[in-house]
């Protein structure tokens, strides 16, 4: 398994690369269990359609998101990252998302500073009732990242 | 700025009164014009001590190693060093009662070219914020200004910045001198190791190392005091301050003008929050 | 080497129609660690679960991935299937290919199939790093603390004690009873308040499972659910309750007179007093602020007349400690101070009183013998104006919320006035009549018909004095005219306001409160009696304005919660909580700062093997940790990890695609 991953690791972003014609972005969606994950479930039960590029990871709270996860996603597998949690004040764990919000801002600005487009990493507050909002957010993020193109070299057989 | 005489006196007095076990100061390196840190254990070695504008290193770094653990320590701190010391005190790494702190009202140190160093030009707090004894005349807190290099890079296109960072950080040799020289990097397990470890699907590649350095800088966001020990230690002369100063800028502008280590008991920016933190970047 | 079993569910047509399930299975089989992959129509059905159980045994699986609906749906079902097969239930991972794939990509089968394969890859990668976890048992102290001895506190204490669980009931004043004891009759049935309350108060005093601590306050609460330790200050009463018989000789002879709080200051009590005749416990206390013996050291009459020698002027405050498992907070309410209503002349005109003062006057055991009188001259009023919503529903001067009970008690007051003063007439200024409750609307109608009270819709705008009468000006919105009413007495229905010490108490208990000071429930609809802190519950007006039936119902609900909590010898807890690896902890204590539950404390451990020196590390209290992961993400040295969502698991997921 490790060897496979190492092959995926290329240098930093290469936006000058041409995207293969059938290239589809991979978006890592890191969702908190109580609001956003429940909201994405609601999107499903309501049969609201959204682009199929997001890969969802469940975490207990947006405060569990170590900036490492975002950086690692961009460095290895993902072309973009979406982190979503409960609205401020609604955190299941009282104050988790307030701490998370500070880290998110600094992480986003730092990644932008070193050359990642700011749309590569996006954040949203989606409550358990906002199934439609989740679909809209995913659609927007997918569209943004499709415009930006791939983040890494693609081996011929992968593309 | 030359406090050599005073520091010799203070250290001598502390040793003769048996108030300290070790004194951390600077001495001339002996083979060039630069100074190096020195740990003085005996009264007779006090004469080695110097302090001029070439005393560039942050000596609080030595408080994280066993040289000084549970010993009574005297040390010299400039403004930036004292802020790091403040954070170390807050984060429980040293005990205040074990320290005798000689604070300096710093007039700025010089860089390798002999010019006043960039971090001293942009210094927000030249005076020691925690001390038992102060040398020099305090000049007070100064206004925060955005780092000149950050301003320059911000003006550039995204791809230009990208190319710059790609080229510069290719030179990283993964020696980890940066983290060993940082007084606030006292962890036994470090994100840099973790991210370049195959256990966590990393690799010893330039890309891994650069991304690890980004995480590392985030661990210092809202804590870094801009002493530039990491940069002085880096054999590849990587502009590590860019990462730290970028985070410092975001933290200062968005989180109630937070500045690391100004007040004792004030933790890093990520360990507190305000209801009014910026929310507009979140959908 | 990991041996993962993958079970892909068709979910009937729900997944099968939009995802090529056999292709997904084939794709899963290509993953190195996957030793067994199969699809089934309904994996959650009995045969489906049997399939999992059989495969675990036959294929010697080390972890299981079920690709089906959301883990929020059936994670528990599949975990049970694992443990039935003798496997640790936490070795399960669920790939959500229904809500996250088939249902949301119904028009693109190829993409949905590809995405489902990716989700399975991620789940497999995560499951490889899954660890065996075991439910945490936390011992519980089966004793409840009830703070506040009003009707809510009394009901909660009695219900808990009836379940044979010891209760400590702490009341701040010398007697339990609270606001309800001050009422005359209660709507909508006009039961005599004392008649229905005092038997309950006596039950509390005599109940073998209730320890009543009157004249006491909780000053400290440590610990966590099931294992709290409360420090309670027993204020010095200067009377030995063990020997005192409550004969009353002391307060008859006491020369010091003080305004009587129980009667809203309408009459006087003595410096040694029992708040009201039916008080429980019916033992007097000495008011240290006014007793001349305690202030100047002269007098001592009560000690002389006490045959039992129960008076002890040297008594000191005493701190007692109780180990408890759960807390019910029932601190009740205060009346809102109508001072901002300057146009009503509050404070200037004596004949404006609040409704609790009116309540005391019409009460048979009240200071005026059950007849309302004008405070200015003691005459019986003929025309009485009741003004509702004083403070309530007034964003400009008062508070935004509705106090809920004022419409009802004002109707009751008109009725009581009618009963006590036959030739009187009541005028009511109201905004809306809110009479939602069993028999409430009927009661208001009955009161209006029986008393003939004049209801004027609108806020009173001004009160001024004319001779010895008060003139109340206001708009009657129904006729659209300004009306003026001559009144002998004006009764303000002032708003219910949270008990003034609520914020201090909330900080002490570690629970949250709203901008007014009402204590916050965990969820406004589904968890209305719990607070965000496990093991602390709310009853009565401490949470929001409530009438007596609501307070009693909520109190009984807290009792059910407490009994549920104490049902076993230990509490079971989800094992997905944070753990500290001492080896790497630097003792910076940032996590202590960040934890929203104060679940992290520090401990001293040897520096290393054979060292005598100590270093500080963080320690997580298993009973308190809720598993949010805040500490994990801020721990720079990666010494803390969250079981079930470890760094390794999440990174595995990230790189698995």
Keywords:
heterotrimer; A: 159 residues; alpha/beta; 5 helices; 39% helix; globular; disordered N terminus; disordered C terminus; B: alpha/beta; 5-stranded mixed sheet; 10 helices; 10% strand
Summarize the structure.
With 159 residues, chain A is α/β, with parallel strands linked by helices.
Task: Describe, in plain words, how this protein is organized in 3D.
The complex is a heterotrimer of chains A (159), B (283) and C (657). Helices cover 39% and strands 14% of the residues of chain A. Chain A has 159 residues and is α/β, with parallel strands linked by helices. In chain A, strands 2-1-3-4 form a 4-stranded parallel β-sheet, with helices on both faces. In chain A, strand 1 (27-32), helix 2 and strand 2 form a beta-alpha-beta unit. The longest helix of chain A has 18 residues, at 96-113. Chain A starts with a helix and ends in an 11-residue tail after the last helix. Chain B has 283 residues and is α/β, with parallel strands linked by helices. Chain B folds into 2 domains: 4-135, no CATH class; 148-267, no CATH class. In chain B, 32% of the residues lie in helices and 10% in strands. The longest helix of chain B is centred in the C-terminal third of the chain and has 14 residues, at 206-219. Chain C folds into 5 domains: 4-128, Rossmann fold (3-Layer(aba) Sandwich); 141-226 and 321-332 and 501-569, FAD/NAD(P)-binding domain, CATH 3.50.50.60; 236-316, Alpha-Beta Plaits (2-Layer Sandwich); 335-497, 3-Layer(bba) Sandwich (FAD/NAD(P)-binding domain); 574-656, Alpha-Beta Plaits. Chain C has 19 helices and 34 strands. Chain C has a 5-stranded parallel β-sheet, with helices on one face. A 5-stranded parallel β-sheet of chain C has the order 20-27-21-22-23. The chains are: A alpha/beta (159), B alpha/beta (283), C alpha/beta (657). Chain B binds chain C through residues 69-70, 91-93, 186-191, 194, 199-201, 219, 267-268, 270-272, and chain C through 583-584, 586-590, 593-594, 613, 616, 634, 636-639, 647-648, 651-652, 655.
């Amino acid at each position: 398994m490790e060897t496979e991953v190492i092959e995926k690791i290329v240098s930093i972003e290469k936006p000058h690369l041409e995207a293969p014609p059938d290239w589809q972005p991979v978006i890592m969606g890191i969702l908190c269990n109580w609001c956003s994950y429940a909201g994405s479930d609601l999107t499903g039960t309501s049969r609201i359609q959204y682009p199929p590029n997001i890969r969802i990871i469940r975490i207990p709270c947006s405060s569990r998101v170590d900036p490492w996860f975002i950086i690692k996603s961009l460095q290895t597998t993902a072309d973009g990252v979406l982190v979503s949690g409960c609205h401020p004040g609604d955190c299941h764990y009282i104050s988790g998302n307030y701490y998370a919000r500070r880290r998110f801002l600094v992480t986003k600005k730092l990644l932008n500073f070193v050359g990642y487009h700011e749309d590569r990493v996006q954040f949203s507050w989606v409550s358990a009732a906002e199934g439609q909002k989740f679909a809209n957010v995913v659609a927007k993020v997918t569209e943004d990242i499709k415009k930006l193109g791939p983040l890494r070299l693609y081996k011929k057989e992968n593309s | 700025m030359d406090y050599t005489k005073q520091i010799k006196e203070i250290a001598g007095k502390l040793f003769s009164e048996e108030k300290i076990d070790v004194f951390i100061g600077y001495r001339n390196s002996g083979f060039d014009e630069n100074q190096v840190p020195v740990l003085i254990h005996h009264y007779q070695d006090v004469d080695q001590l110097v302090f001029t504008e070439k005393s560039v290193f942050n000596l609080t770094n030595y408080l994280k190693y066993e040289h000084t653990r549970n010993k009574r320590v005297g040390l010299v701190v400039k403004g930036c060093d004292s802020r790091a010391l403040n954070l170390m005190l807050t984060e429980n790494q040293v005990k205040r009662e074990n320290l005798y702190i000689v604070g300096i009202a710093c007039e700025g140190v010089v860089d390798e070219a002999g010019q006043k160093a960039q971090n001293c030009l942009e210094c927000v707090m030249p005076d020691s914020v925690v001390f038992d004894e102060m040398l020099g005349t305090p000049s007070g807190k100064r206004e925060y200004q955005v780092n000149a290099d950050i301003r320059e890079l911000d003006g550039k296109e995204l791809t230009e910045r990208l190319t710059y960072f790609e080229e510069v950080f290719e030179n990283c040799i993964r020696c980890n001198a940066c983290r060993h020289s940082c007084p606030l990097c006292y962890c036994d397990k470090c994100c840099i190791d973790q991210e370049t470890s195959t256990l966590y699907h990393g690799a010893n590649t330039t890309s891994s190392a650069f991304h690890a350095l980004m995480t590392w800088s985030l661990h210092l966001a809202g804590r870094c005091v801009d002493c530039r020990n990491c940069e002085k230690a880096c054999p590849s002369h990587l502009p590590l301050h860019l990462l730290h100063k970028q985070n410092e800028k975001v933290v200062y502008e968005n989180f109630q003008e937070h500045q690391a280590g100004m007040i004792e008991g004030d933790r890093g920016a990520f360990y507190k929050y305000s209801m009014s933190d910026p929310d507009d970047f979140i959908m | 080497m990991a041996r993962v079993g993958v079970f892909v569910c068709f979910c009937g047509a729900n997944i099968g129609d939009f995802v090529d399930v056999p292709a997904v299975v084939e794709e899963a089989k290509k993953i190195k660690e996957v030793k067994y992959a199969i699809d089934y129509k309904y994996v959650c059905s009995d045969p489906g679960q049997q399939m999992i159980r059989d495969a675990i045994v036959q294929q010697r699986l080390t972890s299981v991935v079920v690709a089906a609906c959301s883990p929020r749906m059936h994670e528990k079902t599949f975990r049970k299937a694992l443990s039935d097969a003798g496997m640790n239930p936490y070795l399960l991972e669920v790939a959500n290919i229904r809500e996250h794939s088939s249902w949301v990509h119904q028009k693109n089968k190829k993409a949905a199939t590809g995405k489902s394969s990716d989700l399975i890859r991620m789940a497999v990668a995560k499951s490889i790093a899954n660890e065996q976890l075991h439910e945490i048992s936390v011992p519980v102290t089966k004793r409840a603390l009830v703070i506040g001895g009003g009707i809510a506190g009394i009901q909660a204490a009695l219900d808990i004690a009836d379940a044979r669980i010891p209760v400590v009931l702490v009341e701040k004043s010398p007697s339990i009873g609270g606001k309800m004891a001050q009422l005359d009759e209660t709507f909508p049935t006009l039961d005599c308040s004392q008649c229905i309350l005092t038997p309950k108060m006596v039950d509390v005093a005599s109940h073998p499972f209730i320890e009543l601590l009157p004249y006491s306050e909780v000053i400290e609460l440590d610990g966590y659910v099931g294992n709290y330790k409360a420090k309670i200050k027993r204020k010095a009463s200067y009377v030995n309750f063990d020997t005192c018989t409550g004969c009353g000789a002391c307060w008859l002879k006491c020369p010091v007179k003080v305004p009587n709080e129980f009667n809203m200051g309408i009459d006087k009590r003595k410096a040694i007093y029992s708040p009201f005749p039916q008080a429980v416990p019916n033992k007097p206390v000495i008011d240290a602020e006014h007793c001349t013996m305690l202030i100047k050291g002269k007098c001592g009459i009560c000690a002389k007349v006490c045959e039992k020698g129960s008076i002890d002027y040297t008594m000191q405050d005493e701190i007692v400690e109780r180990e408890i498992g759960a807390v019910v907070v029932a601190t009740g309410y205060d009346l809102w101070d109508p001072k901002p209503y300057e146009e009503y002349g509050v404070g200037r005109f004596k004949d404006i009183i609040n409704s609790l003062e009116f309540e005391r006057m019409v009460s048979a055991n009240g200071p005026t013998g059950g007849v309302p009188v004008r405070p200015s001259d003691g005459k019986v009023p003929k025309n009485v104006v009741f003004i509702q919503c004083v403070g309530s529903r007034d964003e400009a001067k008062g508070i935004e919320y509705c106090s809920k009970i004022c419409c009802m008690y004002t109707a009751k007051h008109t009725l009581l006035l009618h009963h006590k003063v036959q030739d009187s007439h009541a005028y009511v200024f109201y905004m809306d009549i809110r009479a939602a409750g069993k028999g409430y609307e009927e009661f208001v109608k009955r009161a209006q018909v029986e008393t003939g009270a004049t209801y004027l819709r609108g806020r009173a705008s001004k009160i001024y004095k004319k001779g010895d009468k008060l003139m109340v000006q206001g708009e009657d919105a129904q006729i659209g005219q300004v009306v003026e009413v001559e009144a002998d007495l004006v009764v303000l229905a002032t708003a219910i306001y949270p008990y003034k010490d609520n914020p201090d108490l909330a900080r002490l208990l570690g629970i949250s409160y709203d901008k007014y000071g009402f204590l916050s429930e965990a969820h406004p609809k589904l968890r209305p009696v719990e607070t965000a802190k496990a093991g602390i519950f709310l009853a009565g007006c401490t949470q929001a304005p409530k009438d007596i039936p609501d307070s009693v119902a909520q109190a009984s609900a807290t009792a059910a919660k407490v009994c549920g909590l104490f049902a076993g010898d230990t509490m079971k807890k989800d094992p997905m909580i944070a753990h500290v690896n001492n080896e790497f902890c630097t003792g910076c204590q940032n996590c202590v700062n960040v934890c929203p539950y104060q679940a992290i404390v520090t401990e001293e451990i040897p520096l290393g093997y054979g060292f005598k020196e100590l270093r500080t590390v963080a320690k997580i209290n298993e009973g308190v940790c809720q598993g949010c992961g805040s500490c994990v993400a801020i721990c720079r040295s990666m010494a803390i990890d969250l079981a079930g969502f470890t760094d390794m698991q999440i990174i595995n997921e990230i790189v698995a695609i």
